[in-house]
Amino acid sequence: MKTFKNLILLLLLLLFIACIPQNKSAQDAINIPVIKVLLAEINNADTLNFNGTYFLETEEARYEFGPSNSTIYIQVLKNGYKIYNEKRLFRFRKSDRVELVPADARATIQLNNGEYSGRFSLFSKDSLSLYFVNQIDIESYLQGVVPAGIFTTNIDYLEAIKAQAICARTYALKKMDERNQKPFHVFADVRDQVYGGVGKRTKLGDLAVLETQGSTLLYNNALANTFFHSSCGGVLEDASDVWQGPQLPYLKSQQDVIGKEFADGKSPYYRWIKERTVSQLDTMFNYTFGTTYLNKPVQDTMDIPLRMRVTERSPSGRVTRMIVNYGTDQHELKGYEIRRFLGWPGGSLLPSTLFKLSSSDTSIIIKGAGNGHGVGMCQYGAMYKAQKGLQYYHILQSYFPGTVLKRAY
Amino acid sequence: MIRQFKSTPKIYILVVAAIIFSSCNPQGIRRSRMQGEETMAKPDSFLYYQPMALSDSFLDSLKIENDKEQALKVRLIPPPPPPAPKTKLVEGFRVQTFAGLDSINALYLVERLKDTVKDSIYFFKENNLYKIQFGDYLYRNDADLKVMDIRKYGINGAWVVARMINVPIVADSSGSIIPADTVASVKDAPFKIQVLVTSDLQKAKNLTDQLKNQFERQSYFITSGQLYKIFLGKFIERADAEKVLAEVKNAGYKDAWLVYKK
């Protein structure tokens, strides 16, 4: 009977111990790195709305903003800036730094139709503008990044979304290392990764970030370059053929295949056709090189020759060099310039450089494949592989062969 | 048998305890598996496969030797000649209703004119003054009548000014032969040039003689109240009259103008 009592005691002890890891996991959360995201450069004036309570902290004082005074206006002045609303007015010098600290984790700030959580800093960039920087733990940051990078509406894509989360985390941590001494680590737009904030979070995005918490992709014990793009058109590109950097063994050209089919075969950009008319080409020449003939008055009917020729391709088949002639002008285009030149209207991009040219009497026909630079993870390919049952580490291994997964925290 | 029965509850309790522990704390098991390990993405699934090389007609065709030069011709066509003007500028008269520095009042007056006048209205700045004129009248008499007309609408103080006016271009009849029986006699000629108006009879006589000699055309003067109006020539065609008028003006008679009277 005594033994039985001991066993009961032991059972209760085990139950108590089982509860302890919860505290431990909360302690782990403290070690998640905080990333600084540049949300906006305020050049003239802007408005912030608080959902919940925030404290405006300066070196000397601390003021509360909450439901009763939830809007503040920021205006850049000649020698600094001011923050004000109907009840309060603060003037700051150029050297002053203002912190906006949330009273609790649920408090958020609205800026330009975006909603963001975490802590915020406001400080002068120069005499004309201010930096508005969001300081947030990297896992929460990724919850706002992943949905902006890949479709997070279909549970079938969960493993691909996880792979995307790992790529985004690795990229962010790499930028944190590189820009350690800068006022911020990443831009919130395409200059780094598009960050949509709390308002853009999705259930699957959150789940993918949670289930891969802390996981990063390493090569030779260093964070890997986790490039990704929308659609590869069936074949991935070697990074050194796009950016002329050192060769990276895990970013080589290869076919993106699952079973007996191309992984991104379902992508809307798997194969595409674009047509560029004489008038559009004249505009492109004008936009890129300042050469135009169609707008020039002539005394007599005359024909101006317009020629294009691909002169170099990478092993994946992507165009790396081409020569364009218009009248007496001749130009050689390389890499990204090709996508910019053949994009339409001026300023947009051709989907990819994986194309071939043909022509009709009045236009150039561009038959192409894929969307994006083609290096690293092909998102449509990853989604299809996830549908077919591959796990996220299989997907990552297929796009970054030779890398390893490791928890950074 | 009894010994077996006694030990069974202990085993059951231990098993239950293990289940409770593992279910309450799954992280413990997972964490021990992942803690600090370098997880090479292992081919541990039966779905993992060695991707095979596929042939594709599009991808296979992307070879530099297949890239031919693509040539187009951009045809440049000269623009069509500009359309012929519908009006031409000739000397004539307009009614001026305003000349001043106040553009607001001028605009207000333009709006009023739009309601009362059917002729073309001109609003422009000339010599630092805003001016409003309307109508393109070949004959001063028509312009004078319009001045009277707009008084009915409360627009007083308008006056007639001589300036270049727009007249519609009619089909060019130059080169066509006019039948002899349609040629009007000089007696019926409606155009004449009024060179000067003076109250000095002697001056009128002298100028009449001078004009006769200078332009070799008939010149005469008529009495109008206290004034003497000196005229030069009689013209059937306005174009002929305008030609002589230009000569008269060049000779120094700047106030000369064309008079039409049937």
Describe what this molecule looks like in 3D:
The complex is a heterodimer of chains A (409) and B (262). Chain A is of the alpha+beta class. Among the domains of chain A are: 34-137, Tumour Suppressor Smad4, CATH 2.60.200; 272-368, no CATH class. Chain A has helices at 2-30, 138-149, 158-178, 203-211, 239-243, 278-289, 336-342, 379-387, 392-399; strands at 34-42, 45-51, 54-57, 62-65, 71-76, 80-84, 89-93, 98-102, 108-111, 114-117, 119-124, 130-137, 186-187, 215-219, 222-223, 228-229, 257-258, 261-262, 272-277, 302-313, 319-326, 329-334, 355-359, 363-368, 377-378, 404-407. In chain A, a hairpin with a 2-residue loop joins strand 14 and strand 15. The longest helix of chain A has 29 residues, at 2-30. The radius of gyration of chain A is 27 Å and the shape is flat. The model of chain A is unreliable at 23-27 (pLDDT under 50). Chain B has 262 residues and is of the alpha+beta class. Among the domains of chain B are: 87-168, 2-Layer Sandwich (Alpha-Beta Plaits), CATH 3.30.70; 185-260, Sporulation related repeat (Alpha-Beta Plaits, 2-Layer Sandwich), CATH 3.30.70.1070. Helices cover 34% and strands 29% of the residues of chain B. Chain B has helices at residues 2-24, 26-34, 57-60, 103-116, 140-151, 201-215, 238-250, and strands at residues 39-40, 70-76, 87-100, 121-126, 129-137, 159-168, 191-198, 219-224, 227-235, 257-260. In chain B, the strands form 2 sheets. In chain B, strands 4-5-3-6 form a 4-stranded antiparallel β-sheet. Chain B has a 4-stranded antiparallel β-sheet with strand order 8-9-7-10, covered by helices on one side. Chain B is elongated. Chains A and B meet through helix 1, strand 17, strand 18, helix 6 and strand 20 of A and helix 1, helix 2, strand 1 and strand 2 of B. Strand 26 of chain A pairs antiparallel with strand 1 (39-40) of chain B.
Q: Return the CATH topology of the domain at 87-168 in chain B.
A: Alpha-Beta Plaits
Any idea of the CATH class of the domain at 34-137 in chain A? Mainly Beta
What CATH first level of the domain at 87-168 in chain B would be assigned?
Answer: Alpha Beta
- Give the strand line-up of the largest sheet of chain A: 4-3-8-11-12-1-13
- Uncertain runs of chain B with pLDDT below 50, 5 residues or more? 29-47, 173-184
Helix-and-strand structural type of chain B: alpha+beta
Strand content of chain A: 25-35%
Per CATH, the architecture of the domain at 87-168 in chain B is 2-Layer Sandwich
Sheet with most strands: strand arrangement of chain B:
4-5-3-6
CATH-defined architecture of the domain at 34-137 in chain A:
Sandwich
Q: Determine the number of helices of chain A (DSSP H or I, runs of at least 4 residues).
A: 9
Task: Predict the CATH topology of the domain at 34-137 in chain A.
Answer: Tumour Suppressor Smad4
List the quaternary state of the chains. heterodimer
Could you tell me how far the N terminus lies from the C terminus of chain A, measured between alpha carbons in angstroms?
47 Å
Mean pLDDT of chain B: 79
Can you write the helix and strand succession of chain B as a string? HHEHEEHEEHEEHEEHE
